[in-house]
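Observation: inputs received (chain + zinc ion).
Thought: call the complex predictor directly.
Action: predict_structure
Action Input:
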Amino acid sequence: MTSQTSQTSPDLQHDCAEDSYPAVGPLAAAEPGRLLITHVRPYGEEETSVLVEDGFIKEIGCDADAEADRVIDGGGNILLPGLVDMHVHLREPGREDTETIATGSAAAAKGGFTAVFTMANTQPVTDQPVIAEGVWLKSQELGLCDVHPVGSITKGLVGKELTEFGMMACSEAKVRMFSDDGKCVADPLLMRRAIEYARGLDVLLAQHCEEPRLTEGAVAHEGETAAKLGLRGWPRVAEESIVARDALLCRDYGNRMHICHASTEGTVELLRWAKSQDIPLSAEVTPHHLLLNDDRLHTYDGVNRVNPPLREVRDNEALRDALLDGTIDCVATDHAPHGSEEKCCEFEHAKPGMLGLETSLAIIAEIFVHSGLADWRFVAKVMSERPAQLTKLPGHGRPIAVGEPANLTIVNPDATWTARGAEMRSKSENTPYEGMSFSTQVAATILRGKVTYEAELS
Ligand SMILES: [Zn+2]
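Observation:
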């Protein structure tokens, strides 16, 4: 477990971090042998066959009956680079009753993902190398999905003292993103220090934007619906004030930063401004903030409680436009499993969060591709390429080309399936899409040449 990279002197930390790009910690081995994928359409374009050898793409446009150890008939489906999710909660260590690295990896593979970043609000909090290494090494033993641990920005997520970014960045987990997600780093001086520290190591900070004084006791978007239903409101300004503040901190202290789960029209305006000023601020949006709004709260069903809350139609529209024009960089699921006792209770007491890994591709395809707003190259960009670029993650989000690692997803755009919490690979069932039908389904997922998921043929 020990290596020369666990040195702690500041100089070595710096060198190590530089060396750590593009390397990652010890990877699960690529699948040896030859895998032939026939009749697939890369990015939804011309049909071809792809030959994978020892985990890498060896040939595109090969003979459909080339010799191989295994053949997958793509059936004319779409081939995308394996999806990358910058924001999930796999709950291990501490809440293995709701999700584990194993069940979360299986859910990720079923959703088309080959790499995910799991947030630090575990129990104990991922604020030390040993916890991060445990997550990373377990995911590599399983070999279903690369699960990269996110380190916390502050010790114990209490917002008082910074963690040792350098130690975590240099650990075997090679932590490359830090976030207190679930909580906001509300103290502006502490955030300034975090930005300065992160800059030296070239790691990404991801902020959960929520001014805590403005959301005390809040459970729903502050608006007409919450007022009618008697629910305490979470105003847009609680998010936007932190986005604005952090954009300015980013500008003045010069490091890139990432906004988690953008949820309001105003946040989009601020991001647009920041990008126009060349401030290195990136952002993600969740499928649920693109698709759902607070109309759903009338049933008082705890499954609809999420943080930030479901907002209004005009926010959905602004977020969609922003993803289309690049103001928002990527999609992230914020996959947040909870047990039924945490969701089937009074709305105010329900834990915020929704499942996302197994439905996200279907939702993004529905909103953008089936509607004609965008094509599959767009989906590859916002669900694979951009998240891999933002996290400087090697081997993922790469073009489908000879010599690249075979991290791939085969997508059936003409399936018919219905989301059911009970049928999810996730250990929890809290999907807000229960009973909803979709037409896009992952047919197979491939990690370094190994098939990690394959839909049952109907
Ligand atoms: Zn969050």
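Thought: report the result.
Final Answer: Residues 10-26+78-454 form a domain with the TIM Barrel fold (CATH 3.20.20.140). The longest strand covers residues 70-81.
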